[in-house]
Design brief:
about 475 residues; alpha+beta; Hypothetical protein af1432; 5-stranded antiparallel β-sheet; 5 strands; elongated
């Protein structure tokens, strides 16, 4: 064979190998890119994929060099199984793309960040398949690492599925309550079965020690704004009502009062609630009228429970007579009215308003207790909030020695209320910030050399959970 034919033969073989390698790359790249192109708010991930493409192109270019062996002529059966599993996981991730993206494009949630990082993981895994060597032994070695990576992706996917299911449930509860309140405000009849079922769900949630979530929505979306606050108040009530000997046997009705107490706010123009400055006399009258309007609506809805309507009418009354609408004071206020007033104040402080940011839960609790000490709120009812501790279940906190932990339990009875700043914490890192092999539970009421210095912000929590503790996202 002439030298020319030998050279042409080598060029032909090299071209065939290049085409095989490029085909595998395109196969993996197209699968990975599909999810990226459909993930509306993850533009930075798409940019990262472009960077990966540059690296990939450089690697492929080296096929023409002396090494000349890059890109497998054929994938082993194990490598193909890895690729098929990767594609299956990728399809499942694609199905979650819209669910993990906040509707209002607000600050990234733990699920959104976890989703983004998981996409990066599987993208890298699929690209690695495309760069496997010809040697079966080499492919086997790479497959071991890829299988571990895909196991982690599968674990994260389970967390994402669980988390998005909880998000969907939260959205369902909020939309259900918003629809109920909107229908009530419109003077139309509602089906009470759904309302009672919602109250029962919140009771089960509290008894299961689920994390306490503080919901908020902008006043421009008035039904969701009112429903968010009402759902939060009802959740707080569900967790403290067992402390009240007179009301604990009526817990279901107490939660109904929380769910319905602000329905009259739907009659207040959204522009009034969006005002970030002091209200003038006209706007103040509009706001203060919501208690009477709400009470009238609930009296017609629940005629057999006039005490609920009475509590709704008085949830802005104060023990010292400075509240509204009637300036009632002291013993004129019934137990449910007093408890509802306390939980309404606490829940509102924990959420942002146009005229102020949200307060940390420990600040909100301290300020609520201060109002009680000043004679505006009932002291006994305010002390019930201590069972939530300064850091309710689900809070992620930093300890004095530098550890990061999650609050998993708070005082269960009034006899344990002397240490609201010392709940039970599951430690996730050591003092140097290194992740622990598994969480270590620490009862701060028994550990005098440990204390909480601050709660983590939503952004800090989201980043930490997504990158280092995905199992806590759900």
């Amino acid at each position: 064979m002439s030298e020319t034919r030998v050279l042409l033969s080598k060029i032909s073989a090299l071209r065939q190998r290049l085409e095989q390698a490029q085909g595998l790359v395109n196969e993996a790249r197209s699968a990975a890119t599909a999810i990226l192109s459909e993930s509306g708010n993850l533009h930075e991930v798409v940019k990262a994929a472009g960077d990966h493409d540059l690296v990939m192109d450089t690697a492929l270019a080296s096929v023409a060099g002396p090494a000349g062996t890059r890109g497998p002529r054929q994938l082993s059966s194990r490598a193909r199984r890895v690729l098929e599993r990767g594609k299956e996981l990728l399809d499942q991730l694609r199905g979650l793309a819209e669910q993990v993206t906040p509707e209002d494009n607000s600050q990234s949630s733990p699920f959104q960040l976890l989703y983004r990082d998981t996409v990066w993981m599987i993208d890298t895994a699929l690209r690695t398949v495309a760069l496997m060597p010809d040697a079966i032994s080499g492919q086997m070695q790479l497959c071991k690492g890829l299988e571990v990576t895909l196991d982690e992706v599968a674990s994260r996917l389970r967390t994402l599925l669980s988390g998005t299911q909880k998000q969907q449930r939260e959205r369902r509860l909020l939309e259900h309550l918003a629809a109920i309140l909107f229908t009530l405000d419109a003077g139309q009849p509602i089906e009470l079965t759904g309302l009672h079922k919602l109250a029962d769900e919140l009771l089960v949630e509290a008894r299961s020690c689920e994390p306490l979530r503080f919901l908020d929505a902008p006043p421009s979306d008035l039904p969701r704004f009112v429903a968010s606050h009402s759902l939060t108040v009802a959740r707080v009530l569900a967790r403290v009502v067992r402390q009240d000997p007179e009301l604990r046997g009526k817990a279901h009705d107490v939660i109904l009062a929380g769910l319905l107490h602000d329905v009259g706010m739907l009659g207040v123009p959204a522009e009034v609630l969006q005002n970030s400055g002091p209200l003038d006399s006209e706007f103040r009258r509009l706001v203060e009228a919501h208690t009477i309007v709400g009470a009238q609506l609930i009296a017609g809805l629940l005629p057999e429970s006039p005490w609920i309507a009475d509590a709704i009418a008085g949830h802005h009354e104060r023990l010292d007579g400075t509240g509204y609408p009637d300036g009632h004071r002291g013993e004129a206020l019934r137990p449910l009215t007093k408890l509802l007033a306390v939980c309404d104040v606490y829940a509102a402080m924990c959420c942002p308003r146009p005229h102020r940011p949200a307060r940390a839960t420990r600040t909100a609790l301290a300020d609520t207790l201060l109002l009680a000490d000043q004679g505006q709120l009932d002291k006994t009812c305010a002390e019930y909030l201590l069972t939530l501790s300064f850091y309710p279940v689900g809070s992620m906190v930093e300890l004095a020695h530098g550890q990061i932990g999650v609050v998993v339990a708070t005082p269960s009875s009034r006899s344990d209320l002397s240490n609201p700043a010392r709940p039970v914490v599951a430690l996730l890192t050591d003092a140097k910030g290194q992740p622990l092999a598994r969480p270590r539970h620490l009862d701060l009421s028994e550990a005098e050399d440990h204390s909480i210095v601050r709660p983590l912000s939503a952004a800090e929590r989201a980043d930490l959970v997504a990158r280092r503790f995905p199992q806590w996202a759900a």
